[in-house]
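Example record

The entry below shows one chain as it appears in the dataset: sequence first, then structure tokens.
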Amino acid sequence: QVHLVESGGGLVQAGGSLRLSCAVSGSIFSINAMGWYRQAPGKQRELVAAIISGGSTNYADSVKGRFTISRDNAQNTVYLQMNSLKPDDTGAYFCNARIRQYSSSLHLSDYWGQGTQVTVSS
């Protein structure tokens, strides 16, 4: 089984910073990509940032220049450094990993963490 555990959420004032971490463990052959999604009450879940195994990254337009995604492949951990936080960044943040579980697997599978709450006050 594959498990994702997020940490680092909290309550901060606008302009502050937080660093989220997501550690992946379990039966894994390789991780194709990892990313962060967020969901505010009454809104759809949206992609915040993603990083592919080769190192390329993607960001939502709303966080470009403020958030940075990085990973430690040796520890199967992904980070999201969030600076200059805004109230609109408030939401539950979920870690996602796209994983090839076995060397013989023809398909990739998505796994999700439980989520960590980020609240940014005015």
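Notes for this example: The longest strand covers residues 30-39. DSSP finds no helices and eleven strands in the chain.
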